[in-house]
Specification:
Elements lengths: L1 H7 L2 H92 L1
Length: 103
C-alpha cells in the first residue's frame, strides 16, 4: 500500500512531504483561516462555559418562580381546608335543625 511506502521511507524524504502538506493547508485555508480553525477549540470551551452560566441563571429564575407558585398553592390549599371545615360545620348545624323539626 502507499501508506506503508510513505511511512517506511527515511525521515529525510518525509520532510518534503510534510512541508508539502503544511503548504497545502496554508494554500487551502489561508493563514488566517488556519489560525481560526485552531482557535475554534479554545472558543468552544468559552461558549460551553457561557452557555452553562446562562443555564444556571435560567434555572435560578425557574426555581424562584416555582417557589412563588408553591407558596401560592399552599395558601390556596389552606383556604380550601378552612372552607371545607366551615361547610362541615354548617352541614352539622342544618342536620341538627332538620332532626329537631322532624322529631
Amino acid at each position: 500500500m502507499w501508506t506503508e511506502q510513505l511511512f517506511a521511507a527515511p525521515a529525510s524524504s518525509q520532510s518534503p512531504l510534510i512541508a508539502a502538506v503544511v503548504t497545502g493547508l496554508f494554500g487551502l485555508f489561508g493563514g488566517g483561516a488556519l489560525v481560526a480553525l485552531l482557535r475554534v477549540n479554545v472558543d468552544r470551551h468559552k461558549i460551553v462555559v457561557q452557555a452553562a452560566q446562562g443555564a444556571v441563571i435560567v434555572q435560578s429564575g425557574v426555581i424562584d418562580d416555582l417557589t412563588d407558585e408553591l407558596a401560592r398553592v399552599k395558601a390556596d390549599g389552606e383556604q380550601c381546608r378552612r372552607e371545607v371545615h366551615e361547610l362541615r360545620r354548617l352541614v352539622k348545624h342544618l342536620e341538627a335543625e332538620v332532626e329537631g323539626t322532624t322529631t
